[in-house]
Every structure is written in structure tokens, then in C-alpha cells.
Amino acid sequence: MAPPRLFWVWLLVAGTQDELSMNDGDMRLADGGATNQGHVEIFYRGQWGTVCDNLWDLTDASVVCRALGFENATQALGRAAFGQGSGPIMLDEVQCMGTEASLADCKSLGWLKSNCRHERDAGVVCTNETRSTHSLDLSRELSEALGQIFDSQQGCDLSISVSVQGEDALGFCGHTVILTANLEAQALWKEPSSNVTMSVDAECHPLSLFLPRIDFALSSVKCFHKLASAYGAKQLQGYCASLFAILLPQDPSFQTPLDLYAYALATEDTLLEKLCLQFLAWNFEALTQAEAWPSVPTDLLQMLLPRSDLVVPSELALLKAVDTWSWGKRASREEVEGLVEKVSFPMMLPEELFELQFNLTLYRSHKALFQRNTLQALEFHTVPFQLLARYKGLNLTEGAYKPRIYTSPTWSASVTDSSWSARNSQLVYQSRRGPLVKYSSNYFQASSDYRYYPYQSFQTPQHPSFLFQDKRVSWSLVYLSTIQSCWDYAFSCSSNELPVLGLTKSGGSDRTIAYENKAPMLYEGLFVADVTDVEGWKAAIPSALDTNSSKSTSFFPCPAGHFNSFRMVICPFYLTNSSGVD
């Protein structure tokens, strides 16, 4: 079926779509410490329950994994390998063919018919690659009767023709009584008529799709988004936007994010524009190192540079990147000065400010601008903030006086999930019979008497101002994957929020300084998929993929289904009211 017809089918059903709650047969994984593994839970009659491991095999596990967005299953586990679940045992003696959409469609003893206990809960481990195609499953929204009427192409009172670059390419018929019930289809009728013409781009025409389950590659998402935008199909537009979040991180050259940003501006799609800006802000360091960096449009940099959520090694690194961009872009004087004004000079140390005149090519051609901003920064570094607020009227709680998300060792540290790798991290070994002991190690030898958690201790300045350079604050960052690890570090955790990052602070108490610490989530060191806030000395680790878990889903999906690297960034700033939020 060609894309225009798929689009029309979407219009048939989208008007009847409500935001669905959980349905009988929906599945999720729990207590696996990662989104691609855990014991299997299935939904039935308003509650979640588990599956017994009788007859459980890889075919059954693969049905679960594919339903949750993975390619396949690598392990089918029993005997509560991921711990005992809760709730009723929903299914027992499951026997799947491998093509089913849910375990509910497989042969079994039936719902709630089991003599199992939770020590026999079934589990799975899914492969680390998601499907190369994505599915739009309309089978639940489009009734079988309506589908048969539409597919029969009989009894029609509406003629639909598709024009590709002004030439007729496809024609089929529809049924007004069905279509008029859909608000998304109203944009097609400028005037009531029995003939409707749709105009599409040539790139949309050759694709073949099928009902009721339509699989299409990410390369076709933009095509359908164009159709949705042109004809006001907001729900289809939103569905495509969710796939853009998968598409953006897949191009390390950054050409795709830049192209999609330009497309978002051309189509006035503010949601896609925000999505592109968020990805580029969190991955700004990688963008500055890509071949596409000199071709980044000036207007895009004007949107990115004022953002406080820019993830960069330091403000100096940001300024040097702008310097490199200006020569590759051959930007005008006005464009360069507009960008330099958006750099937070107070976040650079006095010695860095002094060296700009020797190390930055822009300095000579914009000397007055740099001297003015340097003076502003030196006041910040040498004058107590109470005087700056009183005599200069400066708001030191925002703008250039607050740090961005700086990933250099001065302000951050990282840990790696121990289930993936314990290399090059500091591990904490705890004897069940003794106190906590820290070791710096590149390996770990398992022992039944010891547990270990990825751990890193580090120090930062108390504040970015040079007035505080000799005052250090000690921090400890730990990856908490179990309730036991939370207890060991005196954190209060619930099973639903695990795994989580824990942060502790010692020294450096000052009621004039507050912290808004951030935790970037990295996928194999390739891109930042999300940034979470530290609240109550813990930073949530979102679900890497949308797997119906109780945790929030990562802003950008992690293809492996699991984050393996986490960074903690310390972000101190002045409190002008001196009340302290330590």
C-alpha cells in the first residue's frame, strides 16, 4: 500500500483514538536492573502479574522481547532469576509459535490458572539492538468491519486521487460516513465534495506498506511527517515526531539533526524544532568536533548558546569552538559579536581570560568586546557577590553567572554500570562482617562474601568564582542498583526507582551557595540521551527504552536498551537572598 493510502487509513481511525490505558496482554520487564532484561510481567483485568516458568523457552521469550521493541531474546530464564515478583501468577505452561503479538495470544493453561509460586517466575534477556523498522499497529483502533469495508474498495461515495508533482499517480475510494467522524480529516475538505485530491512529494510515492500492521523504516518518517503536516493530521504528526527522537542520534556526522532542524523551521513544526535543539544542546561537545560544525547555521547557534543546559567541557572550550566556527563559516562581524555576547565569560578563570589575547584568533578583531566582557568576569571573580548585587544591580542567580553542564574533571565525575564493566572505576567492596573499604582497581574477582558498587570520589571548587578556588568540596558518586546498596550508603530507595545514582557531599558549607547538580546519561559514550536533576541527593536513571515500566522513559532512546555510563556534574551558584539551599 502506498503512503497516501496509509495516511488515509490513519485518518479513518485517528479520530476515534483516545489515549489508551493498559490493555489485557500488555507486557513489561521488572527488577532486571536494565530495560532489556528482567522477570516478565503481563497485564490482565486491571493488575500486573507474573508468568510461571513451566515449559518456558526461547521462543516464548522472543515474543516478549519483540513486543517490547527488541530484535529477539538471547536467554529464557526461570527460577526467579531476577528475583521474585508480586501479584498473581497470570499464565502457566505458555507455548508460543513465535509470531504472536503477546503471550496472551499463545497457548497456555489460561488466565490465572496455575499452581506456581513466585520462586518459579519466568524472565528474559533481550538482544541489544532494536528493530530496524518501526510499526504502526492499527488493528486495535480500526474495527475488522471498517477495515473490510475500506479494503473492499466497494460501495464508495468518495473518490480520492493522489498527485505526485502535478501528475496523477494513484486513485482509490473512500466512505464519507466513516471519514466525516474524524476531526483529523476535516482539513482535506476545503469545500464539501465527492472528489478529494492529495498532493505528495515524489519521495513518498514508492514506499510499500501493509495493513493492519504497517512496518516502515526510519528513512520514511520524514515523508509521512510531511503528509501529516500538510493535511493537519496531528496524531500522525506526533507519532512521527516520536520516531524522530530515535532518528536523531543515529548520525554521528550530525548532518541529520541539522537537516531536520532546517526542515522543522520550514514547516513551522515547533515540537520538532524543540526536539532538535534539545539533542544538539545535550550533545554540543560532539557537534563542535564533527565535520558539520563549520556549516552550522548562525541562527541555530544563536538559539543554542544562551541555553543553560548546554553540555560542554567548559566555557573556554565553548568559546574556542565558536572561534573555530567563525573561520570555517567566514561569518560577518555582527554575527560573531552576537555569538560572543552569549558566552558566559564569568565562568572562565582569570588565567584563562588573560590567555585569550594570545590563544584566540577572534580577540584581535574584536578587542573592545573581549575587554568589556573580561572586565565583567574579573569583577565576578574578585568582588564579593553582596557588593556586586548592591552597587551593580546584578542578578547573580541566572544567566552568565550560573554554570552550564560542564563535563571537565574540574566539575564532574563518572561511573560505569557494574553489570556491564568495572574497568577503570573505583569499586567499593563491603564485607558482610566488616566496614566499608575503598580500593582503586581495574578488575573485580567475585566472592560470595563481598558486594561491589561502581563508586567515585572527587573534589570540586566550592563555587566558580576565583574567591572560592582554595575552598574544596568533597563528593561521592555511587551507582545504586539494589535496595541493599541503598542501605549500605544510607539512601532511602524504593524498588520502582532503581537503579539510581547517589550523591553525597562533605565540607564547603556556605549559606550563600546553592547547587543544581545534573546527571547526563550516556549511551556507550556516543551521545547524551538524557539529563536528570539531582533531587534529595539522588538522580533518577530513566528507562532507556519505552518498555511499559514504571520509570520515566529517556528523552532519546538508547538502542542497547541500557545505559552503561553516567556522569555527575556539580553546578554551584550564588543565592542573592543568602538563605541557602545546600
UniProtKB/TrEMBL annotation:
It comes from Rhinopithecus roxellana. Disulfide bonds join 52-116, 65-126, 96-106. Residues 1-18 form the signal peptide. This is Galectin 3 binding protein. One of its GO terms (cellular component) is extracellular matrix. Pfam families: BACK, SRCR. The keyword Signal applies. The keyword Glycoprotein applies. Residues 27-127 form the SRCR domain. It comes from the Eukaryota. PROSITE patterns: SRCR_1, SRCR_2. Keywords: Disulfide bond, Glycoprotein, Signal.
